[in-house]
Amino acid sequence: MADVLLSKVRKNYNPAILKDTLRNINLDIKDGDFIVFVGPSGCGKSTLLRMIAGLEDITDGDLMIDGKRVNDVPPSERNIGMVFQSYALYPHMTVFENMAFGLKLKHMDKKEIIRRVVQAADVLGLEAFLERKPKALSGGQRQRVAIGRCIVQNPSVFLFDEPLSNLDAALRVKMRLEIAKLHKELNATIIYVTHDQVEAMTLADKICVLSPLKANAESNLEQFGSPLDLYNHPVNLFVAGFIGSPKMNFLKGEIQSIEEGKCVVKLITGERITAAVDASRAEVGAKVILGVRPEHLVSATSELADGGKVQGKVEVTENLGAEFFLYMNSGASEVGSDFTVKSDSELDVGPGDDFVVGIPSTACHLFDADGKAFPRTAVYKRS
Ligand code: ADP
Ligand code: MG
Question: Pocket residues for ligand 1 (CB within 6 Å)?
Answer without folding.
Answer: 13, 21, 39, 41-47
